[in-house]
Amino acid sequence: MEGFIMSGLERLKLTGRVELLPSGFYSSVVLVVENGHKKVVKLIRKPELNEQAIAQQLGDDIVAYGAELLRRGVRSPQVKVRLLGDVGEGWDVVVEAPFQGTDVAHLLLEADESDSVRLTRGMLGMISALFDYPLESGFELQIGIDPKPDNFTVSETGEMHYIDLMPPRYRRDGVPIVEFPEPTTDIGKKVAYYRYYDMRGILTVLRSQLCRNRFDLRPLFRRLIAEFAAQYPGLGRHMGLSVGEVFVDANLSGRLAIIEALAGDDMYAMRDIVTQLAFENPLYRHPCIDKVFHLSHFYQEAPSPENVCRVKKILRAMTRNESVEV
Ligand SMILES: Nc1ncnc2c1ncn2[C@@H]1O[C@H](COP(=O)(O)OP(=O)(O)O)[C@@H](O)[C@H]1O
Ligand SMILES: [Mg+2]
User: Fold this and answer.
1) Which of 50, 77, 98 is the last residue before a domain boundary?
2) Which one, out of 69, 86, 232, 244, has a CA that is 20 to 30 A from the CA of 306?
């Protein structure tokens, strides 16, 4: 277990059995089991948390975001937030939540078709609470959500929860928080806003993440998302016209032309195409998918021209059923 997690936990004086959970960019997450009671403790340590006031603000934002989700009917954990000072240069933000079950990404790995339908509809149902709430404008939501399957859990009683409150994607004084720290480039901000606050981006991310987890069920996920999007004016049409969708029915030369035309900011087209090709030819499976997701990642800037070239090379070879080196 990472040293910083251990030192943080010691200072929290947690007792019980402690297991590390998979976690991403912002934090380290552990499950604590004591006397049959389970809770999740998330430790957030970042160079930006170098002043108490900044850490305090982040903690307040996390609590406020949870309240905004609940107000709109998105079940999310009641969290306790505290700060740990004097850790090296800065402050840790510690978020404690009740354990709310296994996440959907894990459940999907083993799921059959009917379970997958149920889980996907469950996530769409939670997302719809935000889509059906008054909008900010156009396709833009008042508060954001990161629609990755590993951010949704199913509890023992079968209830779904949205558990990821970091970064706290809500509008503080009218300004949407998109990442922590916020991207410093305009394009980075725009892409993050699209991913988390825009109905089109949210469904696009969800579709690509589902197809990443289970490319064998891609037609099912495409259908469920298309049906869901059709309930909202203009959204179904938008989702159907995306490059990744056009690719599905294109012939060989059409497909090669689509790949040739891909630009650095066509992250989701690249991702849709690789999962479609893996669905058609399971021999390619995960190495290609993981490689293309990795190479197309976008944070402050679009991927480098060199990465875009590598993506195209993989997609071309897969399209022609040639062997691929990843
Ligand atoms: N309250 C919770 N109940 C159950 N599992 C949780 C809970 N919070 C986090 N997890 C698990 O830990 C993982 C990482 O937590 P998350 O809050 O999504 O952090 P990250 O910022 O790293 O994405 C989740 O994908 C989920 O598997
Ligand atoms: Mg998460």
Assistant:
1) 98
2) 244
Give the confidence band of 98 by pLDDT, cuts at 50, 70, 90.
Answer: very high
Pocket test for ligand 1, best of 27, 31, 40 (most atoms within 8 A of CB): 40
Q: Domain check: are 231 and 304 in the same one? A: yes
> What secondary structure letter does DSSP report for 185?
S
Task: Please tell me whether residues 119 and 230 are part of one structural domain.
Answer: yes
For the chain, how many helices (H) and strands (E)?
13, 10
Residue span of the structural domain in which 249 resides: 104-319
CB-ligand 1 contact for 154 (6 Å cutoff): no
Q: Where are the beta strands (DSSP E) in the chain?
A: 17-21, 27-34, 37-44, 80-87, 90-98, 102-103, 152-154, 160-162, 171-172, 175-176
Percent of the chain topping pLDDT 70? 96
Whether 325 is in a domain gets the answer: no
Q: For residue range 194-211, what is the model confidence (pLDDT) as tens digits?
A: 999 999 999 999 999 999
Per-residue pLDDT at 284 exceeds 70: yes
Q: Rounded to the nearest whole angstrom, what is the distance from the C-alpha of residue 66 to the centroid of ligand 2?
A: 14
Q: Domain ends where: 77, 98, 119?
A: 98
Top mutation candidate among 27, 164, 165, 177 for ligand 1, by most atoms within 8 Å of CB: 164
Q: 165: Cβ below 6 Å to ligand 1? A: no
pLDDT tens figures, 113-152 = 999 999 999 999 999 999 999 999 999 999 999 999 999 9
Residues 201 and 235 in one domain: yes
pLDDT at 68: 98
- Tell me, what CATH number does 94's domain have? 3.30.200.20
Tell me, yes or no, whether 30 and 118 share the same domain: no
87 touches ligand 1 (CB under 6 Å): no
Whether ligand 1 lies within 6 angstroms of the CB of 97 is answered as yes
Domain count across the chain: 2
Distance between CA atoms of 3 and 221, rounded to whole angstroms?
40
